[in-house]
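Please think about what follows:
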Amino acid sequence: MSLTSPIHYDSFDSITLGTECRYLVYLPPAYEAEPDRRFPVVFWLHGANGRPPAALPMMLRLELEIARGTAPQMIVISPDGLGNTWWCDTKDGARPAETVLVRELVPRVDATWRTTGARDGRAIEGFSMGGFGAAHIAFKYPELFRAVSIASGALHTPEQVRKERAGRFVEVFGGDMDYCTAESPWTLAEKNADTIRERLAIRISVGQDDELRPKNEALSMLLSDLDIEYTFGLVESEEHKLGQLYERIEDPFSFYAEVFAAHAGEIEPARNTRMLGNFTDRLRDGMRDGSLHNDAAGVEAVNSLVEEFRQSLEF
């Protein structure tokens, strides 16, 4: 597969892990057509038991909305969370997901792909466990990210982690309440409230009937209490399912069009939009098909669909 394929894996030798580290890349239509152009980038974090291909529903929806002229052209990077780490460094040091992402992957991506290389062209987003991780990392490192998007985040408070996720409490945080509290988005929001208030755009989206809705609403109330601005959206979604959320969320990328306004360039639809209807259902089927979201065969199938889509729409 060519390195310029719309969706493909890249890898690097991680000093932290002492082994190869792979991540999934989405390159927008203009990436190959405009070789001198630089693009904003979103780091997308998967949920529990997920892998990098879990980002495919978001990538497919982005592809569709770029064609419609409602989304900015941007790169998406989907890393591996090293298991169910909640995108923290595990207390025992065995799975340093946070360190690999922040200290190694972010600079690697800037050095490898034509990103803006600047904080105001960089965002982080995650679903479920990845929503917890996106909030944790963005609130901890607001100097690195312009925006964070939390999608149906597993936004447990430290006490809820101990009571409701006892296995993860031990596995990730070593059964150490002080460590769990220090790494919690709830703690970090308060600790870094001044910087977050000034520098970070925040979006929270959750399904109307999602079991995690109360936790997402509770975090939004904390942000309100801290006088931190955010947007909150309810999605018509009966279940805690990634594909359903990204299929049904309305206007999902206007958030990025706004926060990346200085780097996104003019947002225009594809030239041959008369073909758009022929592919919309196929792209949406790809968002729903969970079998595509966790293996290399799914990446290849979705990549082939995107390549066909781009050729037909004459990007």
In short: The chain has a mean pLDDT of 92. DSSP finds 15 helices and eight strands in the chain. The two ends are 20 Å apart (CA to CA).
